[in-house]
Structure formats: structure tokens, C-alpha cells
Amino acid sequence: xxxxxxxxxTGHLGRLVVDALISRGVEPGSIVAAVRSPEKAAGLLAxxxxxxxxxxxxxxxxxxxxxxxxxxxxxxxxxxGNRLNQHTAAIEAAKAAGVGFVAYTSILRADTTPxxxxxxxxxxxxxxxxxGLAHSFLRNGWYFENYTAQLPTVxxxxxxxxxxxxxxxxxxxxxxxxxxxAAVLVLEGPKAVYELGGDQPFxxxxxxxxxxxxxxxxxxxxxxxxxxxxxxxSGAGVPEGFAAILADTDVHIRxxxxxxxxxxxxxxxxxxxxTPLSDAVAEAVKA
Length: 287
Known about the structure:
alpha/beta; Rossmann fold; seven-stranded parallel β-sheet; two-stranded parallel ribbon; globular
């Protein structure tokens, strides 16, 4: 029996990957939820999933977490100032534990994109490639949830705010990306690189119009210079460094299509069209 470990398995993406693996017929007992706080994984344990502590900031926990693991999904962490160190610790531990294959959740065109957000991903990919471990880079595009999470604010203000201009964004749902990760984990001989994005790229104005239609109120898109966006986000409590990263990403969406869809890898992996914009918005509005 192949043992598959998923890091961050209690997070937004990780829990969906576990669900997708089980839906594909993987026995829960052969899945390892490698998590920082095992006490938060009681639900997974109740389903028969193995739960092991895996704190990337405490590398001594990783040997036990990855023991006997054949395939590992390394979900990128959300600590931009420290995540390269965290990813490095995980890769080194996976190699020491004899893990046979590692899939890593990266960003679209990580090796060539100019977006600031890609720097840690590009470096992680290089470390994983140099490790000698068999691997796949799952280069995820934007999540719909990056925008639908803003709906309470958008309802209140009547507009999305950004600096993306008329740039197109090939977003997909977390569930789409989770299904793709699960598919790669059960494949024999997966590709080394998957560029993953949605089938129906949209502009921010199109997103705003769809939200407006579904909530029955006019919603617009307010496009502002990147410097102003950083100022507004910082004023709303977003750390200035992260606000700058978000604004930079918008600039590259506008100027060079940094998050537009490069192909059909995502739909090919999940065996269906990716979730349409209208469905993603409807689900968010319902929630």
C-alpha cells in the first residue's frame, strides 16, 4: 500500500486534498495528515487518516512525520519571510526519510514570472530539483477565493479595488487545485511541471459584474495606481510588505498576463472543465 502524506492538511487547501484522495479511492489509513497542531485534526483522525505532528519550524518533528511515506504533497506555507527555510527543512527531511516522490504547490510560471510573490517558489523549486527526489511542481494560478473572500467588503463599498486594469486572471477554486494535486499523487509517472489555471480567464470588471448580477446590486471595479493600492491596503490593516506584494501582482496581471492561463493542465488532471466564474461566485454568495 502506498502511503501519501499531505502537509498543512488542516488548512484550506490541504483538507480538500485529503477529501479528493479519499474520493479517488485512497484508503484513509494510507493517508498521513502532517500538521503543525495535531489537536486541530481530530476530524481527520475520526475518518481513519493518520495524524502526525510536522512543524517546519521544529525540524526534529519531521523525521517521524515522514517515516514510511512514499509520496508527499508539500503545500507551500504562508509565512513569506520564513517559508523558504521551512520548505528547505521539509525537503531535507523527506530525502532523509526516503520519500520516493514530492509534489510542491508553486505559482504559475515560477521560473520566469516577474511577480514578487514567486521568489520563494522559484527558490523552493530549485532546492527540490537539486535534492535528487522525484518531483512535480504544481504551479497553481490564483484562487477564486482570493476574491470571493472580499465579498463582505465589496457589498459594503459597492466595488472591488485593485491595480490589475484589464488584465485577465485564470482563476480556479481551491477544490479544483486540490483535485489536481490528488490526481498527481495517484498517477504513475506524473510530469515534472504542471501549469495550472482556470478555463475561463476574466477581468476584474467582469468579476465585479458577475457578483453584481448574483447579489442583485451594482458592483463596480475601481482601478487605482499600485502606489495608491498599497496605501489603501496598509491603511486597512494589511502589513505594508504584503500589500506591496499584492499590488505588484496586480501590476503584472495588467502588464504581462502573469496569472492568465497557459494551457489545459488543470482540466486534464481533474477530467472536467474547471469551475466557471458564475459557479464560484454563486457558491460564495450562498455561503
